[in-house]
Amino acid sequence: MSVVLPKPVVPKHWVLDANILFSEWTRWLCQTLADRHGCTLYWTDEIEDECFRNLIRLGRLHAEDAKRDRACLAARHGATRLDVDYQPYCADVRAVHEKDRHVAATALALRHQVQSPVALLTWNLKDFPRKQLLKLGVVRFNLDELCVELCPSAERIQNTLNQTNEIMVKGLLNTPPQFPTPFQIKASPLPVTADDWQVFLARNKMHRTAKKLMAGQNITQVG
Q1: What is 112-163 written as a DSSP string?
Q2: C-alpha torsion 87→132→47→36, nearest 10
Q3: Which of 50, 108, 151, 177 is the right S-S partner for 89, CB 3.0 to 4.6 Å?
Q4: CB neighbours of 86 closer than 8 A, spacing ≥ 6?
């Protein structure tokens, strides 16, 4: 008989996987959500290395801009770059895929450091078994789940999205790319209208967030 674990409260400490850091927009969304709910973002040099190595490899970011961005990334997003020895915790997270084990072990090391539950944010849900991690005090979310959990209404979602756009635009104006890649040059503008948001959120795997946002807007229109 399987045990159904109770729905956990969202922790105040969030470890970001490389695939969450990979998107400029999702970084700013994480910062907005963290600021609004009094939470702290964390990652390690190893996580950051993986993220920026792939950004450069895929032509999303020029190597010189990557070097500059990395120098101020944690401070820019109000995050903490962890310097923890996660190796002793790898044995406890053997259920996690080997290539991602360092992320789970880092979250577990932080959980012991802060003596409270820790959230692990990733898009690779299948590589991070929820039940096994939850038993260790590590709560796994993707960003779509987290946004819906922390924004109980369409209005809250829209406010969060608007704030994310505002701080992202300000950040890009303060530190624009010095060597724009073709990907950056061709990037679509940030969404404004309801239809824009629906397409943008779907493209960014935020399907539940889009559904909740659209449902609230439809109710408003009917009312």
Answers
A1: HHHTS-EEEE-S-GGGS-HHHHHHTTEEEE-HHHHHHHH--SHHHHHHHHHH
A2: -130
A3: 108
A4: 44, 102, 105, 106, 108, 109
pLDDT digits (tens, 9 = 90+) for 150-162: 999 999 999 999 9
* pLDDT at residue 1 is higher than 80: no
Contacts of 75 (CB under 8 A, 6+ apart): none
Three-state SS annotation for 101-126: HHHHHHHHHHHHHHCCCEEEECCCHH
**Rounded-to-integer distance, Cα 46 and Cα 82, Å:** 10
* Residues near 146 by beta carbon (within 8 Å), at least 6 away in sequence: 10, 33, 119, 121
Residue in the structure block whose two tokens are 């946002």:
213
**Alpha-carbon torsion (43, 44, 48, 51), positive or negative:** negative
What separation in angstroms does the CA of 59 have from each of 22, 52, 72, 185? 12, 11, 21, 12
Distance CA 157, CA 148 (A): 8
41 forms bridges with which residues in the sheet?
14, 79
DSSP single-letter state for residue 77: T
CA distances from 4 to 7, 94, 120, 130, 132 (A): 9, 21, 20, 11, 12
pLDDT at residue 222 is higher than 90: no
Alpha-carbon span 110 to 183, nearest angstrom:
35
Distance CA 201, CA 52 (A): 23
pLDDT score, position 2? 58
Q: At what angle do helices 207-222 and 143-150 cross, to 10 degrees?
A: 40
